[in-house]
Design goal:
It is globular and about 85 Å long. The chain has 19 helices and 41 strands. Strands 5, 6, 7, 13, 14, 15, 16, 17, 18 and 19 form a ten-stranded mixed sheet that branches. Strand 33 and strand 34 form a beta hairpin. The protein is an alpha+beta fold. The longest helix has 17 residues. The termini are far apart. It is 24% helix and 30% strand.
């Protein structure tokens, strides 16, 4: 029996085989592919081979850096081509906006430990002597970027993996026995049935059609992209095609303002272009080959851009030796899609990756299969991160077309999804529209970022709200600051529909919930507990709030954006006798927070709301305006307040009652922008940004939620060891005085000219009058008052370590 059959011999499938065999020691692997190997009919073999390392995302940068280093450690297949050339990469900027984005990317690269250099036009031409310096504003040189021959890498991966390689062998069926993979059937008469413990679907653009047969949805789409090899540059004519060392000595060039890139093939120039309307190809329609005929009309604009940049092409007609439209995979969110099927144990996805990240994807999938965990947090790449609406074929069509059109666009971190919009609406949506809400998207939901109807509040708080210009002012309004301050001064009304509820019931529920959570969950009904779920390695799988409604009924409150992953985690560990229900769609959620919150609610309920009647961190059913809701006295904004979980069909009724009742108390509607700045002043963490599986609770400042005296819980052994060792770094609060900033994460932090960490999240603290940021710093630099600098758009700003929380450190307001 094979330990794993890998379906697809492109660079991702081969990388999985390499890591399973050469790294983890699996010695019975089979790789099948419908085409030849190592040169197969997929994207790997026709891809021009650029390894793009620098990005604004840490996971993708980690994967790309690892891939580049790994490819460079391999040997070539033949003598004609260099399989790997680490020439670096040049990201060109034609516009000042792009240049500013490259400055920001340079900062992120410092945070990630990637060597990059900002170059002037003349310095750029020193690397690229065939371009016109007047066309560019500047460039970013990325040292670990490289050029590879994809199928050469595949060949070496397969050889080193020790796998049995079966070309011209298509997958026909996956045999499942009692919910687990047991074998595959193939088109190869000499290997018609292969028994297997695991099957990895790594066919990329063919994978959605293959995986759908086995109940696994992979939301990606193939798109045609153009590549031309042919224009001969006179200065290059001397280079010999039989000398691999002369194939290319230039860096990989990306002309990203026009969605193009360039590389040399001896005397000829290679030109790649995404600058044309999307040509979508569904998985079922790809056929036997990832290539399509070249469409010259789509290349007209690209040729004009090439002539503009490269003087030697001016006045020439396009002539080429080779030209084609090659297909690449675009996922719905731009990230790889990896993980194990929840319906068929042992069936894995390793998809939606290009050459740049394939080595890192192969590493992560193999780690996951062999050890059950991964070095990097997989929240952005997990197979089951998607809500149901994302898997709708119409949604996949629309959003992947958008992703193709925006492949190299400058995307502001606060920029809402451009399309599709209106996919999911809060029950309060009409009320938000009436109040002039400016919407953002969260897990497909349209939620208010701020309300234009609150514009008069800006004048009231004008002295506490700074002005922002340029990049900092995009997708932001002073109204967010006004809503923040109104919440602190009177009260704020928040749409919390972005919360989801996982209900756990049954006689074994108490023991299970206590085992799942790091905190002590053995508390009487009516108690609400903040806790963490930990991995076996002690990483923070999720922080959350849990309410015990009855002795055997618990509600776990998680973010809508991670609900599919959280449900998967809860079900994965649930023993027999525990029932798991997603009741999110049965309830909306409303937050009433601020000094006047008790006064507002008291007008609508007969329930006692004072401390002795309704203590902090408790919950109960109460009637609000005649509607029974589950109320919890907690607050993510650091104020007296209640979360109200309302039957969905009565939601608007309760919202309207609160608006009316709060009029005389100064209750203001408030959006997500205000909530983020409020929570940062209070030092509250945001999962997936400030905390995730790469950090343990002690590093994240959440060690108080870990009760090591409990008999058992997931991650106890690792947490015990982590506490004994003590953290070497800790999530730390920083303050800066500069108001005209909009840090979005990954800005590098310096101490005495040395990079020591990076910002995880930041916002302006309107109540404390300072920029507030969180960053993981070496433990010796976490003492309050320690001077640091934060680099923002190439300039360093003075800051200092501050004691948390900045606002209401004694918790007087929340316990009022």
């Amino acid at each position: 029996m094979a330990q794993a059959v890998i379906v697809g011999g492109g660079i991702v499938g081969a990388a999985v085989a390499y890591h399973l065999g050469a790294v983890h020691g699996w010695d019975d692997l089979v790789v099948i592919d419908q085409g030849d190997l190592p040169y197969n009919p997929g994207s790997t073999s026709h891809a021009p081979g650029g390894v793009v390392v620098a990005s604004h995302n840490k996971l993708m940068t980690d994967m790309a850096r690892y891939s580049s280093d790994l490819y460079g450690s391999l040997s070539a297949i033949d003598d004609r081509h260099l399989h790997y050339a680490r020439r670096g990469g040049l990201e060109l900027a034609r516009t000042s906006e792009r240049w500013e984005d490259l400055v920001r990317l340079h900062g992120a690269s410092i945070s990630f430990g990637i060597e990059t250099h900002l170059l002037s036009p003349s310095e750029t031409v020193a690397h690229l002597d065939f371009i016109d310096a007047s066309v560019v504003v500047g460039s970013l040189f990325v040292e670990p970027a490289a050029l590879v021959k994809g199928y050469h890498i595949v060949g070496d991966f397969l050889r080193r993996s020790g796998a049995t390689v079966l070309p011209h062998t298509a997958l026909v069926d996956v045999i499942v026995d009692d919910g687990h993979v047991s074998a595959v059937r193939t088109s190869n008469p000499e290997a018609e049935t292969i028994s297997a413990e695991h099957v990895v679907i790594a066919a990329n653009i063919w994978s959605p059609a293959l995986a759908r047969q086995f109940g696994m949805e992979i939301p990606l789409m193939a798109f045609q992209h153009q590549y031309v090899i042919g224009p001969v540059l006179d200065d290059w004519a001397r280079y010999e095609t039989d000398d691999p060392a002369q194939e290319n000595h230039y860096p990989l060039v990306r002309d990203i303002d026009v969605a193009m890139y360039y590389r040399r093939h001896w005397s000829k120039l290679g030109i790649g272009s995404y600058f044309h309307e999307p040509h979508l190809v569904r998985s079922e329609e790809v056929g036997p080959n990832a290539l399509r005929p070249f469409t010259p009309d789509d290349f007209v604009a690209a040729w004009a851009f090439a002539q503009e940049l490269i003087p030697a092409l001016r006045g020439r007609r396009l002539d080429y030796e080779t030209a084609y439209n090659g297909m690449f995979a675009f996922s719905v969110d731009g990230f790889p899609i990896i993980g194990e099927s929840r319906s068929v144990s042992g069936l894995w996805s390793a998809n939606a990756s290009w050459i740049s990240h394939a080595g890192g994807v192969g590493k992560s999938v193999a780690e996951w299969m062999a050890t059950g965990s991964t070095e990097w947090d997989m929240r952005q790449a997990h197979l089951y991160r998607f809500q149901d609406h994302v898997l709708d074929p119409k949604y996949v069509d629309v959003v992947t077309r958008k992703n193709y059109r925006e492949v190299y666009d400058i995307v502001h971190p606060r920029q809402p999804l451009s399309e599709p919009r209106g996919v999911r609406l809060s029950p309060f949506h009409d009320r938000h529209v009436e109040a002039g809400a400016m919407f953002t998207t969260f897990a497909g939901l349209e939620l208010p970022n701020w309300y234009e109807s609150n514009a008069p509040l800006v004048e009231q708080f004008a002295e506490q709200i700074p002005h922002r210009s340029g990049w900092a002012g995009l997708h932001w309004s002073q109204i967010q600051g006004a809503e923040h301050l109104a919440t602190r001064t009177t009260a704020g009304l928040f749409d919390l529909t972005g919360l989801s509820i996982i209900e756990v019931t049954g006689s074994k529920a108490p023991a299970y919930v206590d085992h799942l959570c790091s905190n002590d969950m053995d508390r009487p009904p009516g108690n609400v507990t903040y806790t963490c779920w930990l991995t076996d390695d002690g990483g923070i799988k999720r922080d959350l709030t849990v309410a015990r409604l009855e002795p055997d009924v618990f509600w776990m409150f998680v973010g809508e954006g991670t609900l599919p992953l959280d449900l998967h985690w809860v079900r994965l560990h649930a023993p027999a006798g525990v029932r798991i229900h997603d009741v999110s769609d049965d309830y909306s959620a409303i937050g009433v927070f601020g000094p006047n919150a008790r006064s507002v609610l008291s007008k609508l309920t007969a329930a006692g709301l004072h401390n002795d009647e309704f203590p902090y961190y408790t919950g109960r059913w109460v009637r609000v305006g005649g509607v029974e809701v589950y109320a919890m006295r907690i607050s993510y904004v650091g104020e007296l307040g209640w979360e109200l979980h309302v039957p969905m069909e009565r939601s608007v009724e309760v919202w309207d009652s609160l608006v009316d009742a709060g009029a005389e108390d100064g209750l203001a509607r408030a959006g997500l922008g205000a909530m983020d700045s409020l929570r940062l002043e209070k030092g509250y963490r945001l999962w997936g940004v400030d905390v995730h599986t790469e950090y343990d609770a002690y590093q994240a400042g959440l060690g108080w939620t870990v009760k090591l005296d409990k008999p058992s819980f997931i991650g106890k052994a690792a947490s015990t060891a982590a506490r004994a060792a003590g953290p070497t770094k800790r999530l730390t609060c920083l303050t800066l005085s500069e108001p005209d900033m909009a840090m979005s994460g990954y800005e590098p932090v310096f101490h005495e000219e040395r990079p020591v960490g990076y910002v995880t999240s930041a916002n302006y603290g309107y109540s404390v009058g300072a920029q507030v940021a969180l960053a993981y710093l070496p433990i010796e630099l976490t003492e309050p008052g320690t001077a640091v600098e934060v680099q923002y758009f190439g300039r360093r700003y003075d800051g200092q370590v501050a004691r948390e929380p900045l606002f209401d450190p004694a918790m007087d307001r929340m316990r009022a």
